[in-house]
Amino acid sequence: MSLESDPGTLRPGGRTARVRAAVLQAAGDALAEHGFAHLDLADVARRAEVGKTTVYRRWGTATGLVADLLADMAEQSVPRTETGSLAGDLRANARLVRRTLADPRQGALFRAVIAAATCDERAAAALHRFYAIRIAEWAPCVEQAAARGEVPAGTDPHEVVRAVSAPLYYRLLASGDPPDDAAADGGAAAAVAAARAGAYVV
């Protein structure tokens, strides 16, 4: 079943939209505070001040709720920046990722969602879809750079964008070092240098 047809992923307006927004905000707060293992639909309903039956009927499971939360996060993400150069565009991308991961709530939320994805196929599919949307949003920066002659023809834009954020996620999940602007700028610069050298030509 696709994410678009899963419970809770429809985009209705009016009161239903307000309920969805309140529940997703509450779910994000709960995930950031307690992690996926302790995400409880009844607690989310209490936080959102909606009936438990509404939450269970629309989302069904904690995984269904996480899937819809990721879909909403992808929709609400900040649009890509165009600076006129690949280095400037990728630096903007890296700093956006850094701000997100360094934010107390958002960083904890991403750790919780990534943890969920390691043990639940549906959560993993939702996470993969989220990043596919974000990478596709920024890929034109690389395509434009190729058109300007900044990188070789045939450079895979998706691989370049992935290379920008990978060091920041490593810091978040593996080394424990807080992502900072220096790490963001360094990751962007390394991705640009590798792209210019043809490392991502397919």
How would you describe what is shown here?
InterPro entries: Homeodomain-like_sf, HTH-type_TetR-like_transc_reg, HTH_TetR, Tet_transcr_reg_TetR-rel_C_sf, TetR_C. Keywords: DNA-binding, Transcription, Transcription regulation. It comes from Streptomyces synnematoformans. The protein is mostly helical and 202 residues long. The chain has two domains: 3-73, Arc Repressor Mutant, subunit A (Orthogonal Bundle), CATH 1.10.10.60; 82-196, Tetracycline Repressor, domain 2 (Orthogonal Bundle). It is built from nine helices and no strands. The chain has helices spanning 14-34, 41-48, 52-59, 62-76, 86-102, 104-117, 121-148, 157-175, 181-196. α1 crosses α4 (62-76), α4 runs parallel beside α7 (121-148) and α7 (121-148) crosses α8 (157-175). The radius of gyration is 18 Å and the shape is elongated.
